[in-house]
Design brief:
Strand content: 5-15%
Number of strands: 8
Radius of gyration: 17 Å
CATH class of the largest domain: Alpha Beta
Shape: elongated
CATH superfamily of the largest domain: HAD superfamily/HAD-like
Bound molecules: 2-phosphoglycolic acid, magnesium ion
Helix content: 40-55%
């Protein structure tokens, strides 16, 4: 059973937003402009979650691991960043239950923040264009601090900002990076079953609870000790 938290931090890609359609469009258009083959949505879905730099590198080498040539990477990054600036939310949407869940959390007086590995120049427009930016009292992006998830620093930074002890904090995410960051920060962790976890069932990472919709957070926290 969960302990009642005072602060809740929520991940973006795969948790609040299905962003893979825009990320796939930008990845495949970038590949095309470089004269390379498109990678397609299934691969991009597995590659999301460790920031834009890793996504571009994975697309270039067509693998989770590995480093492309530096020149090629620089060219690709310039193309991708320009494309994603124009295609941040065109094809992306909130998952069902997200508005309901966020509204309930706010109505209950939880301190709510956002912690994503997405670069900040894209996080703010995305959350704004999808109409949910005002739910968050703090937004920590992949480039806000020197470290990103799975490092605990972004989570601890938010806890410190609110003056809340890690034991009174809950992370909500979709990937093994969220679980690792939460465990390292001594936060509780709830995951969404539908997100992007590099093609692996998030239950394998043993979060404290797994839910199928953010709207289910209401029942979960109503039963918290
Ligand atoms: O990889 C990214 O750019 C963002 O992923 P996240 O929002 O799930 O942290
Ligand atoms: Mg995610």
């Amino acid at each position: 059973m969960l302990k009642q938290p005072e602060m809740i931090l929520i991940d973006v890609d795969g948790t609040l937003v299905d962003s893979v359609p825009d990320l796939t469009f930008c990845t495949d258009t970038m590949m095309e402009q470089l004269g390379l083959p498109p990678r397609g949505e299934n691969k991009v879905r597995q590659w999301v979650g460790n920031g834009v730099e890793r996504l571009i590198k994975r697309a270039l080498v067509d693998n989770m691991e590995g480093e492309p040539e530096e020149d090629l990477y620089q060219k690709a990054e310039t193309i991708f960043l320009a494309l994603y600036a124009d295609n941040t939310s065109k094809r992306s949407h909130l998952y069902p239950g997200v508005n309901e869940g966020l509204a309930w959390l706010k109505s209950q007086g939880y301190r709510v923040g956002c912690v994503t590995n997405k670069a900040s120049q894209f996080t703010y427009p995305l959350l704004t264009e999808l109409g949910i930016i005002d739910y968050f009292e703090i937004v920590i992006s992949g480039d806000t601090l020197p470290e990103k998830k799975p490092h605990p620093a972004p989570l601890l930074h938010a806890a410190n900002h609110f003056g809340i002890a890690p034991e009174k904090a809950l992370m909500i995410g979709d990937s093994i990076s969220d679980v690792k960051a939460a465990r390292a920060a001594n936060f509780q962790i709830v995951c969404l079953s539908y997100g992007y976890n590099h093609g692996v069932d998030i239950r394998d990472s043993q979060p404290d609870s797994v839910i199928d919709s953010l709207a289910e957070i209401k029942n979960l926290l109503s039963q918290a000790a």
